[in-house]
Amino acid sequence: MLHVSEPAGSLLLHLITWIQCVGVFFRTHLQRCYLFFVWNAILSYEIVTGKRDKWIGIRNFHVIYEKDGLIVLNKHPDLLINHENPWLYCLTLQMQLFFNRPCFANWKLNNMFHFVNRLDYATSGLICIASDRLTAGIVGKAFNKKMVGRHYLAVVWGHVGAHKFPEESAHVTTIRPNVYHVQMTLGGMVHKWPCGKQQKLVTYANYTNCENPRKSSTYAIVLEHGQLYNQPASRLLLIPNTGRRHQLRVHCAMGLGHPITGDLIYTSLPFDQAQSTSVKRDDTSPLNHKLERMALHAFHLNIVLRSGRPAAQVHCHRRTDGNSSRDSCVLELYTEEPKFFSVPTAWRSDQTFYELDSWRNIYSP
């Protein structure tokens, strides 16, 4: 039998560990080189073919918060969260995150990362990613228990409130001037476009092919009326009480009757019967293609964290309102208000109803 002395065994163990670390380093380095090349190749192809207008650098990575296993990013518009074949189509937030923070990756997960919340492809703004299962559970519980205040900024076609809402008594309640509560039961449906492509969209419950309908609720505050490319438009603050897929886009288009500018899906659909008299959709549809993006941005998160232990693992500042327990704290995050339009003179404000700062703490936990 071969016996290895204790010093020799220790040296061998260190050598094996070093080889493994070097192997991981070179593997990660090669993967990042591959991503850099393929990301830029796909992006160049999509810009040349007209699928997208704006370049997104793989290193253009906007970190809002990063501490104790939680990273909060300001997601780019027109960027998928993940893809079923991420190493073939790598133009996703998942692969951008891997390129910039490979240490966060967990190869046992299908998507490599713990995405606590999600945003649509066309929506920009705050998205939370946890580095481990424990942190994901703490922050995810806050979202599931509705202990998260979420504020979105949007620009919609037409002057909201200037005309009667479609089916107002059923979907829209006026709380006070220029403040509305939209309540709709939404479900999924499969829509076939004229080109033959099928896509899963969202519609209201009384539509024939609506599946799995669920209640949804959003508060809409009209901040401004103005003009966008000489068409009436409104700047809104949207505060969702629920988190249904495409909820804000559907509530604006079908509930208020004022679709979000740049929304190529819900601006005009065969099953959308909510036609506001203030929005001529035949006039605004060409302008949606003129805009560089859909004007919907998640700009504020207020997260109440309760870990169930004497001290929360996630770093944040403590509540000072007297309503907190020893194991709860508040994480409050903002982004800058984005410039929705590439042409500086595209938007003109006509009338201001509310300042954004006066609503920062409304409907927060």
Keywords:
30% strand; 365 residues; single chain; 13-stranded mixed beta sheet; 13 strands; alpha+beta; globular
Please explain how this structure is put together.
InterPro entries: PsdUridine_synth_cat_dom_sf, PsdUridine_synth_RsuA/RluA, RluA_PseudoU_synthase. Belongs to the pseudouridine synthase RluA family. It comes from Paragonimus heterotremus. The chain is an alpha+beta fold and 365 residues long. Helices cover 24% and strands 30% of the residues. It is built from six helices and 13 strands. The protein has helices at 6-48, 93-100, 133-144, 168-171, 247-256, 281-290, and strands spanning 63-67, 70-75, 114-115, 124-130, 148-157, 172-176, 179-192, 198-204, 211-228, 231-240, 296-306, 328-334, 347-352. Strands 1, 2, 3, 4, 5, 6, 7, 8, 9, 10, 11, 12 and 13 form a 13-stranded mixed beta sheet that branches. A hairpin with a 5-residue loop joins strand 7 (179-192) and strand 8. The longest helix is centred in the first third of the chain and has 43 residues, at 6-48.
